[in-house]
Amino acid sequence: MKYAFLLSLTLLLTSCLKDEYQAQILDNDQEIQNYIKSKNLTVQKTTDGMYYQITPSGQTGKAQVGDLIEFYNKLTLLSGSLIDSSFTSKNQPRTLIAGGFSNSIYNLPLSYLNVGEKGIFLLPSNLAYGGNSTDQYPAYSCFRVDVQIVKILTQAQLLERMKSDNNMLDAKTTTSGLIYKKIKENPTGKKLDYGYTGKFNYVGKFGFNYNHYDAATSAVVYNPIFDKGTGLTLSVNSGSFIKGFEEALLLMNEGEKIQIIIPYNLAYGTTGNSTIPGYCPIYFELEVPIP
């Protein structure tokens, strides 16, 4: 009897939650329809509940998984409150690697656009931030996303741009795919090998610029740097670093400085981590000073 009661209670709660979820979806849909009517928009609706209007560019080619997308964006509530916007006037587009930013609100809208196209996308809460809230938007909010894709780069094109941006067009490539160029050599220096300990300096960059806080200047900057350090302790052990970083260290002697571009399969793979998105190649400048 006790277990039958608990089962009945569980089923009742599940049913209530499902009804509440369905009611929220219907409320969101009505809110979006009212907005469409007030703005006199001509839109289409997807099977999952997103409404959209696309202005064709005359170009073809949607982003594929792993491609880098550069785009301008404006994110607002249906009330008009601004949540996020890129700086078109400063030529500072946002970037996203298709399939690499799993929780981005821009994933779905961008998947509908060819390069050069722009669109208006109206998202119900279940396709946005759901029941989450911040000081900018309440739970179960609907959003308007305005986006225009300005450029799409394949992985190969992104690697070539990274080589060009970092003066590495004459770089070498190992059999694994690591791209490297020594900018300071010391042939007689002690070779780095497993078990080596010492100090190193480094700068890490993406293959794209982005807005982020720079502690050194106490300001938001737009550049590709995601990490840097000086005089850090270096211990070279198998598996201590991502594959590409470890391979680069084993190419070095003390007193040398090297530039490397690590393809995503030698970095953080298709899933990434809290800092690096999936499918993201990364650049490092490494220096191992003579003690």
Automatic annotation (TrEMBL):
It comes from the Bacteria. It holds the Pfam family FKBP_C. InterPro entries: PPIase_dom_sf, PPIase_FKBP_dom. Residues 66-153, 189-291 form the PPIase FKBP-type domain. GO terms for molecular function: peptidyl-prolyl cis-trans isomerase activity. SUPFAM superfamilies: FKBP-like. The keyword Isomerase applies. Its EC number is 5.2.1.8. Gene3D superfamilies: 3.10.50.40. It is an enzyme of class 5 (isomerase). Keywords: Isomerase, Rotamase. Belongs to the FKBP-type PPIase family. PANTHER family: 39 KDA FK506-BINDING NUCLEAR PROTEIN (PTHR43811:SF19), FKBP-TYPE PEPTIDYL-PROLYL CIS-TRANS ISOMERASE FKPA (PTHR43811). This is Peptidyl-prolyl cis-trans isomerase. It comes from Sandaracinomonas limnophila.
